[in-house]
Amino acid sequence: MEQIVSAGIIDSYFRKLKENLSVDVAIVGGGPSGLVAAYFLAQGGARVALFERKLAPGGGMWGGAMMFNEIVVQEDAIGVLKEFGINHVKYQEGYYTVDSVHATAALTYHASRVGATIFNCTSIEDVVFHNNRVSGLVINWAPVHRERMHVDPLVIMSKAVIDATGHDCEIARTLERKNGIVLNTDTGKVMGERSLAVEEAERTTIENTKEIYPGLFVSGMASNGVSGSYRMGPIFGGMLLSGKKVAEDILASIK
Predict the structure, then answer these.
(1) Residue 35 counted as domain residue
(2) Angle, CA 178 vertex, CA 173 and CA 182 arms, to 5°
(3) Which residue from 39, 50, 93, 163 has the least number of CB within 10 angstroms?
(4) Kindly report the CA angle at 78 between 90 and 50, in degrees rounded to 5?
(5) Are the C-beta atoms of residues 63 and 236 closer than 8 Å to each other?
């Protein structure tokens, strides 16, 4: 039995990995915008692989605000909550409260259910850069990356990459730093996140969700971090709508 258990895990995992060495869209970061993007992309017929550094996808959504596991979602994003079957309670006109554990579990489940493949415990070291276009990801195990071990990575090829890494905008920063390119921002560079301003941040999270360099899209907090806008705190409507928007944009571009 012991051998069957080990062999089953190894065979299944390596089959899954091999099937995802070339995909339509590779998503970096399993927070709410990344999970929503994975869902709508897979539902739209794209082959999608999502890579999350931590053990569990979901980003900061699990903890709500200060570990009070409730979040707020505004009226504009209720359609996304309904799409995922997420329960929500009206708090006051235009604003709803949501159990953050229930919501995060639902996003993860439904993204996987429609065909997106989620790889956890995986870090991104670099991007593949062909003919002045982002064409894939350079991946390694998260513990290897964290411990700075000199272990060579593997490569995932893709038609598009989404930087959904949150406040740090890791993929955009890596691309800019290593290749001396000009991004689709006001300065041509990663501008960095500004301090909290909820209403402005919620609006610009969606506005700044876009292709910032051929093949590289940004969503969620990474979109505001790249374009120099504000953070928003534990209100998640903009994050959900950003994930949906980036999926729609990529489906249109790859078709």
Answers:
(1) yes
(2) 65
(3) 93
(4) 130
(5) no
Q: Rounded to 5 degrees, what angle do the CA atoms 207, 223, 235 make?
A: 80
pLDDT averaged over every residue in the chain: 97
DSSP state of 207: H
Say how far apart CA 42 and CA 49 lie, in whole Å: 9
Establish if 8 belongs to a structural domain: no
At residue 255, the pLDDT reads 75
Task: Say which residue the tokens 């899954």 belong to.
Answer: 16
CB of 27 closer than 8 Å to CB of 234: no
pLDDT digits (tens, 9 = 90+) for 125-179: 999 999 999 999 999 999 998 999 999 999 999 999 999 999 999 999 999 999 9
In angstroms, what CA-CA distances link 178 with 62, 126, 129, 140, 173? Answer: 33, 9, 10, 18, 8
Tokens for 245, please give them: 């928007």
Q: What is the pLDDT of residue 47?
A: 98
**What CA–CA distance (Å, rounded) separates 22 from 65?**
37
The 3-class SS string of 72-97 reads EEEHHHHHHHHHCCCCCEEEECCEEE
> SS3 of 237, please?
helix
Domain that holds residue 130: 23-254
Number of domains in the chain: 1
What CATH number has the domain bearing residue 104? 3.50.50.60
